[in-house]
Design goal:
single chain, 1426 residues, mainly beta, 6 helices
Amino acid sequence: MDPTLLDSVKLRLVACVLFLLLQWTGSLTPLKTSALCLDKPCQNRAECREGPSDFLCQCPSSVPALLINQCHSSSALCQLPVCQGNVTCQSTGTRPGELVCQCETGLLGHDCHSSAQLCAQGLCGDGARCMAVQDRSPGYACICQEEYTGTFCEKKVDYCSPNPCRNRAICRSRGGGPTCFCVPGFQGERCEIEVNECVSWPCRNGATCVDKIGQYICLCRPGYTGSSCEVQIDECQSQPCLHGGSCYDHINGFSCTCLAGFQGERCEINIDECSDQPCLNGAMCVDEINRYSCDCLQTGFTGVHCEIPLPPCWSQPCLNGALCKDEDGNYTCDCWPGFEGRNCETDLSECESSPCLNEGTCIELSWKTLYGTEFLLPTRYDPRHAAGFICKCPPGFSGALCEQNITDCTTNPCHNRATCEYFLGSYKCICPSENQDVFLYGGRNCSEPLVGCQGHECQNRAACVPILSEGVHGYSCTCQSGYTGSYCQTPTAFSFETNGSYLQLRTPILGAEAYFNITLGFRTVLKNTVLFRRGSGGATISLELQEGCLLLDFSSDHQPNATSWTLTLPQVVSDGEWQTVEAVLVEGTLVLKLLDPCQDRDNCGTVTQVDIGPLELESALQDTIVGGLKEKGGSGSFIGCMRDLLVDSQLMVPEDWLSSSTVNVTQGCSHYDQCLSGPCENQGKCVNLWQGYRCKCLRPYKGQNCDEEYVTARFGQGNSASYAVFTINDTSESNALYLSMFLRTRKESGLLVLLANNTHEFLHLWLEKGQLNVQVNNMKIITGESLVNDGEIHFVGINIVEGVLILESDREFKSMNVQPVSVQLVDEVYVGGMGDGRDSSAFGGYFKGCLQDVQLNERKLQFFMFGVSAMSYNPDHMVDVTAGCISDDSCSKNPCQNGGICLSLWDDFTCNCPIYTAGRHCEEVRWCELSPCPPLAACMTLGQGYECISNVTFQDNGTLVYRGNGLISHHLTSIVFSIRTRKSNAAVLHAESGPDFITVSIKDGFLVLELLSGSSFSSSSPLSPLTLYSPRPVADGEWHVVELLMANPWANSSQWILVPLDEKDEPKMSSSMAGNLDFLREGVDILLGGLGPESGWNLIGCLSNVEIGGIVLPYYGPAEVKFPRSQEEMFYKISEVPVHTGCVGEMVCEPNPCLHGGICEDLFNIFDCFCPPGWAGDRCELNTDTCVSNPCHNGYCSIQGVKYNCTCQSGYTGTNCEEKVDVCAGHKCANGGACLHGINSYSCLCPDKFTGPHCTIQIQEAPWYVVVRNVVPKLPVSICGDEQRNYTCFNGGNCSETYMMCDCLPGFSGHWCELDLDECKSNPCLNGGYCQNMVNKFQCVCEMTFAGETCEVDLNAASVTSDLLLSISLTSVVLLLVLFGVVTASVMALNRRATRGTYSPSRQEKEGSRVEMWNIVQPPPMERLV
């Protein structure tokens, strides 16, 4: 036989023997038995009894034992008995934990009754009372506390079912009853009362208040708006007035005051000033605002009306910036260099000759198009400098004509930012003169640091300049002005202290050419003096100051008819600062230059040609007098300092002069500054005059020390018409106009200054709305930005130069282009106004205020003859202009009202108002802050006074009578009030005057207006009374707002409108027409609340204040308020009937008419009963509690109107919950499965070999080689539940706190743990192994060639085929057989002993919880309490 085959047979035999042994051992294990009661599981001396599959504990008391209940001390059923004496406490058997005391035979009467109470007290609760009942089960009844109900007081009383709260309120049971939480808009214990938000009269200005849920709505009268109609509609807010018109707001309207030049209701029409065709010579008239202008462009004329012919130069015929000159109807053009032709239109071509060398590009300065793009040209084109050309050189060339070759600089030989320049066929380096680093640099290439200034000896702040010469370092000193010498150690300054001081020098002119040069620095404050004079006996040259300006004069002789030449410079140099001047005569040219400082470079020098001829200048110009004229004895002598005097380029040093050549001349420049003491007042600027000072005063101050002030002119003192007229009495050559002044006023408008000539007014200056306005030649107006009518002093200036007007106001400037104007002889100046007040009114009337220091072209308008100056104009005519700026006494007219104290300001006043008053004049009295009304009335502020507002209650005999005070002027077109009543027929208001009458009443519950008015306006047949009904009744006890209005209040007669009482209604309008209520203004009795004591139509109810035409009918007389009413228009009460403040109805709820605890609700003169549960009817007299008989057997009863509804407990059904639900009826448990009752459902307990929810799935049969024994482990069962219902927990399941549920052991599921989980469902066994399902686990039975927990080991692959493995296997079998025998004997012995005891939980503990389910005994045929 093949050895390999033999090994395979041996291996299969060993595996088969091992498998049989394991199967046999597994079948023996469930045969173990245990005694359930051996471990004494029952407690508290209870007796343990063993059952078929579990044990029972019999408790020592009369309480029945429960399955698996171990009688712990926490169990209420196992506590000590509560019945006293010979009374036995027993379970009722109906509810879990319910006990009753059973009296023994012979124990009757009171003793047994009290004992029964003690027994049942634990069931009803500590707070409830227990009452024994002998004729009903369970023998007692619970009398519950107030908040509990039910048979055992187990339910809280729900006071909110049904909900007693009304109007969507939220109900909560609290404190033995319901509590209602109201939604906004309701109040009351049951939220039954709607809050009337209109009670407080929140609507103002005669508005109608409409009460809503949780809010109110105000129906405003025309002209008012806002949530409370508190805001008067500002019809001017939308700015309806056009073109700057002023809008004035009225109630429900507005009016416009138009500016001059406009008209119409909204100033929308611009008045056409061109309608008279004022423009001449065919010019077009342009209409503007309140004026016109003439467009003269196409006419050849100019002037305001195009009446003046234009000069030839007006069209600017000259081109290229040339100057045009008019010549007798023609013109000539003065061309700038580079241009020619009649109109300078020809550009001379400088590049035509190709002046640029080396292929340089020639660019003419007149080529305007290249400016801004060609960097060689200036940034801006100027025709005055357009003559000439420039050369744009190619690379390697430079110079004006590109004549220099600079190729040597291309190698950048110069260092340290030096500049390389072409020089004599080579280059030179221009080293920087500024110290960019630590050193300056020198040498050929600027590469060597210059160190010559280290340790220099330069004095007097001289600058040291390092020098490098032939490799040797040195330095030189650059002296400050006033010093000279190698180290700047010698001063060159000298002083002329007094008149007559001079310096005489003699310096012969060298050479035959006529040449002289004098350069000097000077410092003086003299306007007229002599700086030097050179020459004597013949030709002379002198330099002087005339009016502070330099003047150089050259004269050939002293004779009167001698020829002379003069040069002047415009700069003023007599300002006390250092100036440097140079005078040169050379080759017939006389030159005067201002060297330093000079800001205007174009005017710093002047040149002229002189005819020297045969003059002998060598001898004539040898003598030089500096500082004065020797022969004039000091007249015009120079006082001040000089320095750096050079005569013919020779420096004159003071220390070298002979004492005989100087008179009162000292070295140096020292003097006392006269301004150090600050002599100038009022911020005047002090000017040092060397021997004195002069103050430059700020306007309006004057005097030596600026301590005087120009007299102020007062206009409009006491509101008078003041003005002054001046006439220009000189001729001005200037084309400019400058007008300035100081202004103080509080008036918004008024004429300030007007300039006029003999033809028209050419300048206006006036105030409008506090702002300055200027107009030139009746053209466009310029307006200042800031306000100047604040009572403060403001500076105002007008400057017109070269067609530009500049308006200045406190350093704020505005400009505008205008036609040039100037002041001429006999022009007139009007200040403050004009003689005719109508002329002044066009500019706001006469000026009121003060003017000071008024100047016109630097000449003052002198109002008063105090120190009259020649530089001033005197008035020709002056009316009511006074000196000084004295204020009007604004408090003289007592402008402050209501006790206010007037405090004077300049031309104004302020009122110190008492408390509770306000306004500029204290005219606004805050009456309501004084609490003038009775306690229950609310104060309402009116325009001129106040009124006390309240609701009042009218009884059957209270009629009030009113009458107008005779001062009512506006039309009465409305009636507004609120009413609350239940009376169906009553008069509210009535008045009559002749045929006119008005009646507001209630008829059959509806509000009715009857009105006959305006009969005097009817010219035909008499008018019939107007009748208007409300759309719905108002006699319902609720508040209703009534508003009756004329549809057209401005007409004599109109329809009347009833404003909707409710938002659902539409406005109701009368079919006929009637007039207004003006007949009630005076002398008519107005009856309110009825028609008299015996009429039967008197009102019973409440009224708010009634308003007729917005005027209140007051409920309180003068004696009932603290202060008299100050409003002009009012009605007053003439009846003496007192009023009952507030709205109070009859006491309909006292005593309470509602029975059985019903709540009475006062609905204003009627009541409504809110009944408790179980009662109904108008007075809660009907019993409606349908649950009082406890009709629901196994459920809870709830009231549904007049019926009841039973909510059944689980497991019961039927109308009264009398039927028990059998969930197993018609069950689908198959193959002999038992139906288990559950909560509204059932479950199937399957027999062997079947599983699934309905036992329909058959368990797979085991293979032939698997031995399966039907002996399965037993698991205990538990009986759970209560006396009414119990259930069984299988497979070791325990009772759960969840009703009708079990806590299952691992491996089981279902409500009662009846389902064994199939762990083989996932086919865990591999390689054809058979899966055997066990408790919470599985076991794989493998084929012969496989092993392992899931048959995953292939035995053919293992090296276990040797004989040694067979021997070991046989030995293991023998040992297992011996062990099996010992274990079998022990188990049988234990089983025999355990059959003698009862059930013990230790049996379960010994066997464990892993027991198969199919060996469980079948459940009892029915669930019952053992």
